[in-house]
Amino acid sequence: MSGQDIAKEIFYKHQVYVSPSAIYSLLYSLKNQDILEIDTVKGDLRTKCYVPTEKGKQIITKQLQEFREALTYFLLQINKNLP
Description:
By secondary structure, this protein is α+β, with helices and mostly antiparallel strands. The chain folds into 2 domains: 1-52, Winged helix-like DNA-binding domain superfamily/Winged helix DNA-binding domain (Arc Repressor Mutant, subunit A, Orthogonal Bundle), CATH 1.10.10; 53-83. Helices cover 63% and strands 18% of the residues. Helix 1 crosses helix 2 (20-32). The radius of gyration is 17 Å and the shape is elongated. The termini are far apart. The model has no long low-confidence stretch (mean pLDDT 92). InterPro entries: WH-like_DNA-bd_sf, WH_DNA-bd_sf.
């Protein structure tokens, strides 16, 4: 996904405008932490595509698992309080 694609997706899903400078600042920070890597798009060397590295994939997997566990706990707590 390119930075512009990310901005469009955020706006489409959440109706929130995030400035390109904020997006690219975050993307470069994640690249410097070896969480993302940059690929160029064939035929367009100016467009960059950001993809997770192996380290990034591990972080994403861990975060998703933690989210699932928190959501499961939350739903179980709600269920306990239902009549």
